Hints:
This protein is an alpha/beta fold.
Amino acid sequence: MKIIMLGAPGAGKGTQAKMIAEKYSIPHVSTGDIFRANIKGGTELGMEAKKYMDQGLLVPDELTVKILLDRVAQDDCKNGYVLDGFPRTIPQAEVLDKALSELGEKVDFAINVDVPDENIVKRMGGRRACVKCGATYHIEHVPPKKEGICDVCGEKLILRDDDKPETVLNRLKVYHDQTQPLIDFYTKKGVLKTVDGTVSTSDVFASIVAILG
Ligand code: AP5
Ligand code: MG
């Protein structure tokens, strides 16, 4: 099963993708997480990506596409995957489409997690993230068991550099300009499913499971 998560920054793509990955035993592939791991590791790719991410801009397609195609070509992706944060532009979606059709495959579901902009800014300041395993928390809505520590791997949680309110507003603008057109793209392919992302994380997950079966 090949699943794409669509939705504004902070809509809950990462939160739901983790739960999907666990239930359906497929890898969770997040381009944002890959970039953040590279930034933490001080790699050349990380340094390049950081220039864009800190401003809330998209990392150029040339860099992003290569990383994603390399990742999904790995063995653990043979039986499918859940993509979180990719594609984010029409050219990225077209590259993915082409790569899949060359293998005789296609995207099975594009899940659009719908949350209005007003709710997003409020969520971001409370988010805490684990750079080691990609788990995401919220200080009020989804707190870790021990303050500041990841439940899954015990790593210290961080506040992401791009979660400052002014950067969040930029990311929302970039989302509306460059990523929202993908909703049309996947609607035309007949695979788009929209879920209400404003309810609790378990209720959002229940609507996704009802779609995926
Ligand atoms: P990325 O890491 O993908 O960030 P994003 O799309 O901005 O999305 P977020 O991770 O911020 O939000 P999310 O939807 O995963 O929400 P979460 O589950 O954390 O990308 C970061 C940057 O990398 C981009 O800006 C870009 O520069 C670059 N990049 C990445 N991919 C790229 C690509 N393909 N092309 C080009 N550049 C790329 O939830 C948010 C918060 O809300 C959390 O605190 C969570 O606990 C809480 N929450 C979740 N669900 C609920 C709920 N139902 N109720 C209450 N709170 C909830
Ligand atoms: Mg995320």
